[in-house]
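Course exercise 7: structure representation. Students receive a sequence record and must write out the corresponding structure in token form. The form below is the worked example handed out in class, using Integrating conjugative element protein, PFL_4693 family (263 residues). Read each field label carefully; the graders check that inputs and outputs are placed in the correct fields and that the protein name is recorded exactly as given.

STUDENT ID: A-19
EXERCISE PROTEIN: Integrating conjugative element protein, PFL_4693 family
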Amino acid sequence: MWKSILWLAVTSTLVTSAWGVESNAVQTSGTQAATSTFTDSRVQGAMDRISEEEKSQARQWMLSEEDWSKYKKIMAGPRGIWSPGLDPITALGVMETDPAERRRYAEIWMRMEAKRAELELAFEVERMSASQQVLGNRPVVDNDKWVQQWNADQNRRTHDVMLFVDPDCVDSCRRLFGEVLASTGTGEETRLNVYFPGGTSAEEIGGWAKTVGIDPDIVKARKVTLNFDRGEYARYDISQSELPEVRVVNLKTGDVQATFKRW
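STUDENT ANSWER:
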């Protein structure tokens, strides 16, 4: 009799204890789920909120506040690990699944890239002009090895092609520029120098170069130079009313040829 009562008491205690553990586990699980949901909502809210600084950044990239919020979420996920530092437009474009939105991002990217190229070309014009004014034909640094290399590069050049154009000449000059550049070949023997009339601004030259499709890299490499007129129009007998004109200068003999036949 006492054994039966004791067995019932132990069984009851074990059942009650097991139920309590299960109940606590359910409560803990529920609490964790609630905490996770709360945390997720806070993270989501932080992603959706756009600070004044971020609004300014979005405008600089030609993006809306909604775009910027989407960009933050993208970079907080795997893409941020795969491509840290990826620019906002590219990040949005490569992760977009909607064709219309992807096309919109591509168009924004092209506008930004065109503006970048235009600004870089305009600055390169000013930089080359400043270099000519300050240094003339002197090397930038006083270093024997560098000077020897500079002289070797200069000696490799045999011809300069001079293209004189008005910044308003776009379509026909785009074709002409392409033909003249192709005629210079891919080596270092010939360089194409483009000259604009007096009064042309760096912004106009940069805009022309961008519209014509000049790669900023070939300007930086000095395969092509973009120049203000510093007496070249008079020296080569160029009339503004008869632009465009082309002259080929033999750097070894000094001979000058007029090679362009008017359309």
